[in-house]
Amino acid sequence: MSSVTVEAQDIKKDFVIDRSLCKQLLAPFAAKRKIRALKGVSFRLKSGEILGVVGSNEAGKTTLLRILADLVEPDAGTVRILGQTLGKNSCKVRRQIGYVSSDERSFFWRLTGKENLEFFARLYGLSRSQAGMQTRHILKEFGFESRANQLFRDYSAGMRKKIAIMRALLHRPPVLLLDEVTNSLDSESARAVKSLIREYVSNSKHCAAVWSTHRLEEITQVCDQVMVIENGKASYCGRVSDFRNRGTVRTDYLLKAKNMDGQYDAFWRECSRSMKVDASRNGSVSKFVFSDISDEDFGHIVTMAVKNYGAYIIFAGCLERSPQMVARL
Amino acid sequence: MQQPDSTISIKSLRMPQFAGFFGELGKAAAFIKKDMKISVSYRLQFVFQFLQIFFGISVIYFIGKMLAQSGKTSALAQYGNNYFSFALVGLAINSYLRAGLVTITNDIRQTMNQGTLEAMCAAPINYTWLILCSSLWQFVFETIRVGCYFAVAIFLFGMRLDNANWPMALLALGLTAPIFLMLGIVSCSILVVVKRGDPVNWVFSSLGAILAGTMFPVSILPAWLQKVSLCFPLTHSLEAMRLTLLTGAGFNQVDVNIWALVFFIVMLVPPTVFINSLCMRAAKKKGAFSTH
């Protein structure tokens, strides 16, 4: 049976907004304004699993990852990494974590990529020879050897991101925290990184990862669990397969058609008998949105519109739903 | 041949064995190496830092010559009546203080701006040790610069240190370094929280430079300010260094200053540890390691 690798219980975090000096002097005892970043987030992640954290900007994804990386202290709640509580034995726990921040600038710009990696390897407690060896290995595996001796400042955003991923993997941590890890990467590199992380988590013992992203397709490709964060709250947390079903079984479809002038009302009435339809008209273009129907039903509707109502189809397809929309279903 | 990106595999990456106590020393060595490389990479600045020594010494050489010609060196009687030697020791030791406070805080501020401080804080390293390690290269560098100050003064400007009591001078210097290091840790810790305008830095580097008598003897200050100056470790450090280097004073002549430095070390340890842990905790609460 796989053990729990990362466990978060009811994590809450508020950030105090700094007031201007003028306001502080005028009202020194006024209540401090706070931003509620996380409002009680919990999850359990077993070894071999990847949890996808998805949400819009300012939803609280980065704050959650920074709390898990022991860089921000939560106001309430506990985090356990491999059974050890975060904050009690920080150094020991941090050794178990590989963190890729969304900011790929977090290196020494006047050192080469290799020198940066060697320095961080030493910081993770590796001996000099081990740091050199691990750095050489990972640079080779990423096909980065020829660019390893280039100064970090000369790297492109994508190359910096790759160095950041290499840094997180150098000490082979059991827990990976990946914040927007495929940002700045081209599609081929992004695909390679996804399969690398999947392979790393699946093949290593007691290994798990938390993957934060905006992109729903990354969640469905890489993750086992998904958590949708909205305004600091987890609006959905569960298996990716369940999440995927929610999104595909109950999908909205859009039909945009022309030449339905005389038939618009008749077509709408016929469709409304068996399903929920929102219709609108703009000049000669008619627009119908069908909610919660299968793709098969939508196929019949399109055929009917063309054959029976003489519609000229401009667009017929499914309306993409955001992860937040799916979570609310 | 390089592998294409689509076939990244880290199977060859071995599970590392983490070093224990030596790992911590290794971290310190890694910091020194990293900071040295960065420092040397700014070639022009690196060269100017050494050229500056020559110009700094030249200025005090001519001031010393002027004072010697006018015969107004009576205030320096206990230091051998030589303003040049007197001020040179002040300049050299003050550069130590600057390394411990100004340079380190600037470096830490830069790492915060770049986001490297957060990256380092994510590693398994004690935060006090992290700041201490961050300042090591500056102390190594300043030790080399202090050596250069004396070498230039002796070989180019004819400074004489025939009577110097080197063991006692090194003892005084050895006791000065941890004090400045602790002040540096306190200063950096406060900086992580307040970002700019650290009061420790201001008190010790600006006020201390005046009251401790870097370029003039404390005896010319008003009596009440002389008493205030005793609260600054730099005063005792300069006094001990000047007397041992310029007049060859032994332990009996500088014992008050030596014990004062020991007292400062002992007294500074608890507040340094307390302020550091308090500030780092506050920074962690605010999530301030990477905010600028």
Q: Assign the structural class of chain A, choosing from mainly alpha, mainly beta, alpha/beta, alpha+beta, or little secondary structure.
A: alpha/beta
What's the CATH class label of the largest domain in chain A?
Answer: Alpha Beta
Q: How is the CATH topology of the largest domain in chain A named?
A: Rossmann fold
Roughly what percent helix of chain A? Answer: 25-40%
Helix tally of chain A equals 12
- What is the CATH-assigned architecture of the largest domain in chain A? 3-Layer(aba) Sandwich
Provide the succession of SSEs of chain B: HHHHHHHHHH
From the alpha-carbon coordinates, what is the Rg of chain A to the nearest angstrom? Answer: 25 Å
Query: Helix fraction of chain B?
Result: over 70%
Describe the structure.
The complex is a heterodimer of chains A (329) and B (292). Chain A is 37% helix and 30% strand. In chain A, the strands form three sheets. In chain A, strands 6-7-8-3-9-10 form a six-stranded mixed beta sheet, with helices on both faces. Chain A is globular. The mean pLDDT of chain A is 85. Chain B is globular, with a radius of gyration of 22 Å. Chain B contains ten helices and no strands. Chain B is 74% helix and 0% strand. At the A-B interface, helix 3, helix 4, helix 5 and helix 7 of A face helix 1, helix 4 and helix 10 of B.
Provide a brief overview of the structure.
By secondary structure, chain A is α/β, with parallel strands linked by helices.
